[in-house]
Design goal:
Structural class: alpha/beta
Radius of gyration: 22 Å
Largest sheet: 6 strands, mixed
Distance between the termini: 47 Å
Strand order of the largest sheet: 6-7-8-9-10-11
Length: about 290
């Protein structure tokens, strides 16, 4: 198979982060055979070979597993399973010489504190996965960024739904009282300009989907390759592009702003929810 595209590599990295690991814990060889290897233990490997054959170790119940996957999305599903298996083995391995898979009776032979510690560790890893998924607001694009924006609204207690493929916008957020945010999401390395197709999508959403009580919002992860502190003073959208969206009474908000609201929600969720309400009330233009 040919090497993966950068967009495909980005999706692989997103799956790794969403699984509670750090991207730096893995090395990815993007050649005729794509090999993803866990740096701390070179026996833990996931490989996409010629055609659609996928091999990984550790397996679900054996040392290794394999499958024939017909699509890249199916390969990502197997990758997620491999990462769960890897997480399981990292929990089980207690020292040099430990077996890859513990016997079925092992946990029952351990003192109660063993199970208690495993439950705590599982809870910590789940919390880490959740936080990492929100952190994607700062650097992701495409579907992973859409999911991060949806998760942001979920954590604040709003009902957020991803739209189906082919829709004119990405996420519907129910605010109550028949009010909705219709959000188009984009992650870019620079800024929105007048030629951006996102402006056309906003217009199409207004024409075909929006009701009088709705607010169409363009959520932009601009300059996503830069640390947040370095992008703080960068432009998000050109003046002429902003003038068009302002005239359409559509709002523009940065994903960094959403991330800041999430940080505030850790102390006062009501404060963050109030910002979302103000976003809906804002009558066109860059917010805040």
């Amino acid at each position: 198979m040919p090497p993966l595209l950068q967009t495909q590599l980005n999706r692989i990295k997103a799956v790794i982060v969403e699984s509670g690991f750090r991207e730096s814990e893995f090395e990815i060889n993007n050649g005729q055979t794509v090999v993803i290897r866990f740096r701390a233990n070179q026996n833990f490997v996931f490989a996409i070979q010629s055609g659609s054959n996928v091999n990984w170790s550790p397996g679900e119940k054996t040392f290794s597993d394999s499958a024939n996957s017909g699509s890249f999305d199916a390969q990502l599903t197997h990758l997620s399973q491999w990462l769960r298996n890897l997480n399981r083995e990292l929990h089980a391995i207690e020292g040099e010489g430990a077996g890859l898979t513990t016997p079925a009776w092992f946990e029952g032979a351990m003192p109660p504190v063993y199970c208690e510690l495993r439950e705590k560790l599982d809870a910590i890893r789940e919390e880490l996965r959740s936080i990492s998924a929100i952190g994607a607001l700062l650097w992701q694009s495409g579907i992973p960024l859409n999911k991060a924006v949806k998760r942001f609204f979920d954590t604040l207690g709003f009902l957020a739904t991803l739209t189906p493929d082919g829709a004119t916008y990405d996420i519907t957020v129910e605010l109550g009282g028949g009010r909705r945010l219709l959000i188009e999401v984009t992650g870019i390395d620079s800024y929105i300009n007048k030629a951006s197709n996102k402006i056309g999508q906003v217009l199409a959403t207004l024409q075909t989907e929006a009701k009088p009580s709705d607010r169409v919002v363009l959520a932009v992860n601009a300059h996503r390759q830069k640390p947040p502190a370095e992008r703080a003073n960068e432009r998000v959208i050109t003046d002429d592009a902003l003038a068009i969206l302002t005239g359409l009474k559509a709002n523009v908000v940065t994903c960094s702003t959403l991330y800041d609201w999430w940080l505030r929600s850790l102390k006062d969720v009501g404060d963050a929810r109030a910002e979302v309400e103000r976003l809906h009330a804002h009558d066109g233009g860059l917010f805040p």
